[in-house]
Write a structure and sequence with these properties.
The complex is a heterodimer of chains A (359) and B (350).
Chain A lengths: L1 E3 L6 H11 L3 E2 L7 H10 L6 H15 L4 E5 L7 H14 L5 E5 L6 H12 L4 H28 L4 H17 L3 H17 L9 E7 L1 H5 L7 H7 L2 E5 L3 H8 L4 H14 L11 H13 L4 E7 L3 H17 L3 E6 L5 H22 L1
Parallel strand pairs in A: 1-2, 1-3, 3-4, 5-6, 5-7, 7-8
Helix pairs in contact in A: 1-6, 2-3, 3-4, 6-7, 6-8, 7-8, 12-13, 13-14
Chain B lengths: L3 E4 L5 H14 L3 E4 L5 H10 L6 H15 L4 E3 L2 E4 L8 H13 L6 E2 L2 E3 L7 H9 L6 H23 L4 H5 L11 H5 L7 E6 L2 H5 L7 H7 L2 E5 L5 H8 L9 H16 L4 E7 L3 H17 L3 E6 L5 H21 L1 H12 L6
Helix pairs in contact in B: 1-6, 2-3, 5-6, 11-12, 12-13
The chains are: A alpha/beta (359), B alpha/beta (350).
Bound molecules: iron/sulfur cluster (2 copies).
């Protein structure tokens, strides 16, 4: 099988490792470009949320590069994501591609069906090989997230050095073939990045990023928000990582469950129910950031995103009550660099002013 | 005077008003409904909401403000998470009570009940008791009120399938008892009118301000209309068989189930999808329905409703669509022979 999958930040590195270990040929879709978005927009439902359109663009480019199997996550609602795969399959069918699609829906008790869907991916590997492949992919995800955190801690000191250093480490993680090597790369890489933080720096401001995960994790669609902020000398903290999501929803890691309880408790006076996607988290994490005395919050969402529109409606009150400035960026395929930069710059200026006034 | 509880005439009012008003009235509460949607309500809603919100939620906010002006003691704001196992309402409805409270800080206290039927049967009775306890300490009274309300709701469902509009039923106006469902009537061989399906959420189908009185306009054009609320469970289920994966939205199930049922049984000449701009679930549902209709060559028109869509434009599109259907029916032999047989077939497959 020649497999392809959708892009989301650096996740491709882990997916590539996983499927290669299972003995498949992997056709990683080319990095997201304007062409990807154009393709996706042309063939997707006009009013679908941006992630779906980007997925479609990735799949078309992957299939054009010779893939014959598309792998996609499923879900059981309440948000649109759970039905993405179904719609994407029909779009690609109508475009005339001949391909297989494997949509990985959560088992919800029906393990037989779940394993049957995943069967072809196993490629007759034995259990040990499968477990090893999964462990390698998981280690890569953890390594990528760890390095990203270190990068965010250092990039505002010396933006260009940090970026090139970060890119180098990411490349090394991609190449690494076993977990021991990964550990070494991670430790060394994080150390290198940390060295950059020793330069003197005045009047630092700290911004937390919350919102819909695809928009938060995929730099192409958020117009490289984190690096843009870094180059303005702003320290950025991302509210969630892929490894957090896996820890919480698949591995049930106790420390992440505790975290979840923390943000729920924080959000309670404002939003007391799950609303699909990451809406609840956006509200809770914003409050937690505010309690940690962050200087501002940037909330990113794709245009018409349901859970985040609820969050956005509520964040107004949070901003008032906690006296923390919040910038909401509702982005879609038409969002241009120029308008975006002006808004972000104006926001950062405002946050700086505010901080100066207090000091 | 008793307690006055306001129910906004928006969103799921068109589906569950009778249930709640019956229950509350049996609790000795005076139920106050907001005015019919009008320009002021819509504008107030738009002003209070976040820009990218869908029109129905904006309109809902306008109705809450209207109730606020009516000086009610409470505003009734159920949180509809799920009304049937394994399916959800829209994420926005799950967060609606919180959203309303944050966006409209000055309103009277809200009565929030969580409706979540995902866990077998749900804790509806528990929530109902929680609500009832606010008004009486007599559990028997609550139980009786609940039973009456459920019975009314069942009756409501039956009448909606027969083709009455929710407001006709709520106001007990023009309540003709029909023997057949409207679908059975429409399928009688002697009826030669143009038949179309009008599919969408209750608040788009029945709020004549939001939909620019589309049902009235179609009637004027002598078109027989089947709305997505007029199908029995079994009919929808047979339509849904085409899907590879169960659809996890209750509204989505109605729209897709009825769209596919109509398509399979060739009951109508075309369908119109009524969709709110920026509606999340419908962006997906629409694509599934449009694709299936396109593949089979049956006309499907999607009308997107938002606060900017002018009435003129909608009428033009509607008229053009109906003209096209008429032309197809008269002129196109192939359409008649492939689609005509079951239309005229007396033993229609119901
Ligand atoms: S969370 Fe937002 S982006 Fe994701 S599927 Fe839902 S609406 Fe789309
Ligand atoms: S179903 Fe659509 S129109 Fe209704 S509240 Fe949700 S997003 Fe809005």
């Amino acid at each position: 099988m020649k497999v392809t999958f959708p892009h989301m930040g650096n996740l491709w590195i882990a997916l590539k490792a996983l499927f290669e270990k299972l003995g498949h040929e992997v056709i990683t879709p080319p990095p997201i470009t304007k062409k990807t978005i154009d393709l996706g927009v042309r063939y997707s439902p006009e009013f679908a949320c941006l992630p779906l359109k980007v997925n479609v663009g990735n799949f078309i480019e992957g299939l054009e590069n010779g893939a014959d199997t598309v792998i996609m996550m499923g879900g059981s609602g309440p948000c649109r994501f759970g039905y993405y795969g179904q719609v994407e399959r029909e779009i690609l069918n109508d475009l005339g591609y001949s391909f297989n699609i494997i949509i990985v829906d959560p088992p919800e008790g029906d393990w037989k069906n779940f394993l049957r869907t995943l069967g072809p991916l196993g490629n007759n590997c034995n259990w040990k090989e499968v477990v090893n492949a999964l462990l390698l992919a998981w280690s890569k995800i953890k390594a990528l997230d760890h390095i990203h955190r270190a990068f965010l801690k250092s990039q505002h000191y010396e933006s260009s050095t940090a970026c090139s250093c970060y890119e180098d480490i990411i490349k090394k993680i991609d190449i690494a073939m076993d977990r021991k090597e990964l550990r070494k790369i991670t430790l060394q890489g994080a150390g290198e990045l940390m060295l950059l933080t020793e330069t003197e720096h005045v009047e630092q401001i700290k911004i937390g990023i919350v919102g819909e995960v695809f928009m938060m994790w995929e730099p192409y669609v958020n117009l490289d928000l984190e690096k843009t902020l870094g180059s303005m000398g702003v320290e950025v903290v991302r509210s969630a990582y892929i490894s957090d999501w896996i820890n919480e929803n698949i591995l049930y890691n106790p420390s992440c469950i505790l975290r979840k309880m923390r943000f729920k408790r924080a959000a309670k006076p404002y939003l007391s129910s799950f609303v699909g996607g990451h809406g609840w988290e956006s509200v809770g994490e914003t409050i937690l950031f505010a309690e940690r005395k962050f200087d501002g919050i940037i909330h990113v969402l794709p245009f018409t995103c349901m859970p985040e529109i609820i969050a956005q409606s509520i964040l107004g009150s949070v901003s008032r009550d906690y006296k923390i400035p919040i910038l909401t960026l509702s982005l879609d395929e038409h969002s241009g660099q120029a308008g975006f930069l002006t808004r972000v710059e104006a926001f950062i200026d405002m946050v700086r002013e505010k901080k100066r006034a207090i000091v | 005077m008793g307690v006055r509880v306001g129910i906004p005439r928006a969103l799921l009012y068109y589906d569950y008003f009778l249930l709640w008003s019956t229950f509350l009235e049996n609790m000795g509460v005076e139920v106050v409904v907001s005015q019919k949607t009008n320009k002021k309500i819509v504008n107030n809603g738009i002003k209070s909401a976040v820009d990218d919100t869908c029109l129905p939620v904006k309109v809902f906010l306008g109705h809450v403000l209207d109730l606020n002006a009516k000086k009610v003691d409470y505003i009734f704001l159920p949180r509809y998470i799920s009304v049937e196992p394994r399916r959800f309402m829209c994420p926005k409805l799950m967060g609606l009570p919180d959203m309303v409270k944050q966006l409209l800080p000055g309103i009277p206290p809200t009565l929030v009940v969580d409706i979540d039927a995902r866990k077998n049967g749900g804790d509806l009775p528990v929530e109902i008791f929680r609500l009832g306890r606010l008004f009486t300490f007599n559990p028997w009274k609550i139980r009786l009120a609940y039973k009456t309300a459920i019975a009314k709701q069942k009756e409501f469902k039956k009448r909606i399938i027969q083709g009455l509009t929710p407001e006709q039923i709520f106001l007990e106006k023009n309540v003709i008892q029909r023997k057949n469902t409207i679908l059975e009537d429409i399928n009688r061989p002697e009826s030669n009118d143009l038949k179309i399906g009008l599919l969408g959420h209750g608040y788009n189908l029945f709020d004549n301000y939001i939909n620019m009185n589309i049902q009235g306009k179609l009637k004027e054009m002598d078109v027989q209309v089947l709305t997505s609320k007029m199908f029995k469970e079994a009919e929808m289920n047979s339509g849904l068989k085409r899907l590879q994966k169960d659809i996890f939205w209750t509204f989505g199930r109605e729209t897709i189930g009825s769209a596919f049922y109509l398509l399979q049984n060739k009951i109508v000449h075309g369908v119109i999808l009524l969709v709110s701009f920026a509606c999340g679930p419908d962006s997906i549902i629409m694509d599934i329905v449009e694709r299936a209709y396109k593949r089979e060559g049956v006309p499907c028109l999607t009308l997107i409703l938002d606060e900017h869509s002018g009435e003129g434009g909608v009428i033009t599109r509607l008229e053009a669509f109906i003209e096209m259907l008429k032309w197809r029916e008269q002129g196109d032999e192939s359409y008649l022979s492939s689609h005509g047989e079951s239309l005229d077939c007396p033993e229609s497959p119901i």
